[in-house]
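User: We ran a pulldown and think these components assemble together. Before we commit to crystallization trials, I'd like a predicted model of the whole complex to look at. Sequences follow.
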Amino acid sequence: MKVRYSYLSQQFGQIDELLEQIRAFVKTGDFTLGAELTKFEGRFAKLIGAEHAIGVGSGTDALKLPLKALGVGHGDEVITAANTFIATAGAINEVGARPVFVDCGPDFCMDVSQVERAITKATRAIMPVHFTGYMTDMPRLQAIAVRHNLPIVEDACQAILADMGGRRAGTYGVAGGFSLHPLKNLNVWGDGGVIVTSDAALADKLRLLRNHGLKNRDEIACFGYNSRLDTLQAVVGNWLIDSAETITQGRIERAAYYDKHLGSIPQLTLPPRYTDRRTVYHLYMVHAQDREGLQQHCLARDIECKVHYPIPLYRQEGLRHLGYRQGDFPVADAQAANVLSFPCDQHLSREEQDYVIESVREFYGAAR
Amino acid sequence: MAGSAALVLPTEARAPRQVPYVALGQQFAAEATALLSRLQRTLASGQWVAGPDVAELETRLAARLGARECIAVGSGTDALILSLRALGIGPGDEVITAPNSFIATASAIVHVGATPVFADVLPDQNIDPAGVEAAMTPRTRAILPVHLSGRTAHMPELLELARRHDLRVIEDAAQAIDARLNGQAAGTFGDLGCFSCHPLKNLNAAGDAGFILADDAELAARLRRLRSNGLVDRETALEWGVVSRLDSLQAAVLLERLPALDSVTETRRRNAHAYRELLAGISQIFLPPCRAEEHNVFHTFVIQVERRDELQEFLRERGIGTAIHYKIPIHLQPAARSLGYAPGAFPVAERQAQRILSLPVHQFLTQADLAYVAANIREFFA
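Assistant: Here's a predicted model for the assembly, 750 residues in total across the polymer chains.
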């Protein structure tokens, strides 16, 4: 049995209605900052529980633009998690600031207890990453941020509809960045991102920054970027957004099924399962003994399992100038060596899950 | 004028009609069926980022325009930003460019940490090589000429300057796909050529899109990693990068459209030629001459007139859409205040900003539309 990681060709099996909408849309010629985008932004803001949503070109830009809008720049430091995808640190670097890493906890999120130690006079913002769909401990992080008068910009790219204490990922910080990349829980047909905020002045600034700083057709208030969510992609987003909750539920159910059957295998360790927050399983990631062996075994059985990510950010060649040394982030290092992600999307069938579970059992049975 | 008698039909030409400046809806309606079936194929592949459509588009654009490499990116703005970065231009460096372009030309320079230094333009709206030479300082690292309106800049002179002063040349060819100078395509003269496929461009996607032409394989490889987070494979970030990839979906739209580019360009050139004849002899209008060696693609057709705002309003009342590219020169924008330029710094560009008006020139105009526009302009100046 083939268990594919990407389900995209399945996701749009029944798209006649959507194609009709696109046919109607293209005839309007309303391709840039069009009406469908405004509608999508309104619906996205409501879904997350924020006042404003601003559609941008990618999840990376959804992190970069808020930093820029907050005036973070050269000589500044931004604290983030050591185990995230390159784009988080890339967004910080893009505005000229320096990423300062904090090690992560067993839930793959920033270990909030280590944040205060990383704060210096140059710290200008904190960017927690709700990695894999887990929520960072935001109430605790927020208390620290308030104490040090630092804004939080949340990297919620993998965490749409995750929540904690009745508040959703993206709404604790002054702004939250989301990705609509094809492989995200709520996706479009290409690169895309959304920023949410409840600060009206910040929202205005972000709208300027994504559109060349243009106040109107002729006047430029500030140097800005070209980072607009295509209106065409907003049509896709509008078509899918009502399913966001169903998609999330589908992932949570599949994760629970894996948990039930994989949890008893002694060579696997599941990350903590919280009752005080909702995890949305953008990735279903476990800690595995002999990870390489298990991955090879699964790949040989046509199960597309992946490693997010085998090289921690701080040890990447492109980041060498930050001056971190091997061993600076022991938890991130340990996880890079033992994590494995299995397909966990809403289109995955029970048979496919059983096949994955059986294959994992078989591997460790043989190893015993 | 020989042709004008045949083209001007005074009675018919004065019958009121709508002549919009752009006709995107019309374009997409005409192509909807073919486009949608192509999109459906791309969608079914599930490869929506960096898929085979993007690779095919890159190959075809490179071949058509005469470059070794083509790197598709998210927008024309990003094409400029990434090109500057790939050439190592950054803080402390100066880049000489034109003050009469779209803001993105200058903001790209600002975003890499360098300083835009402007040089005035010639009557044809393109940067004046003599002004470029005068603007050079020991910090100058590159020249960024703009092929404004689809007319090639004065490349031989600029290339000679660059050679003499050891400067890089990045072409802003956002408005100039397939524009040629002595047969050579805009975007292939300098180190890198930057293009936009924004919906309003001659070759247009259904959203933001852009690409870069390069001949140097190493530069191309660097651009490919810069557009995708600095990643050289799934795991390794060789350097800092951004996310600026052309969506497969937009690549599919562009592939579907590419075969029609010749006819789009030809129609725009024909429309421009018709305007030249129809507007000939009106002493209040200045039309930049087309030199024999130029093959202009008329992304815009720009006339220069006194009482420009009045004329624009007069035409608007008669259902004719026009535009101004661009009303406020970059050096006088609030965003550019820190660069320290004052009014009067670039007299030619500033005077043109008061006088330029872009007439509709798109491929859906009819002869009657053109005659109607011309008749109304003639009436205004009568």
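The longest strand of chain B covers residues 69-73. That may be worth checking against your pulldown data before setting up trials.

User: Thanks, that helps.
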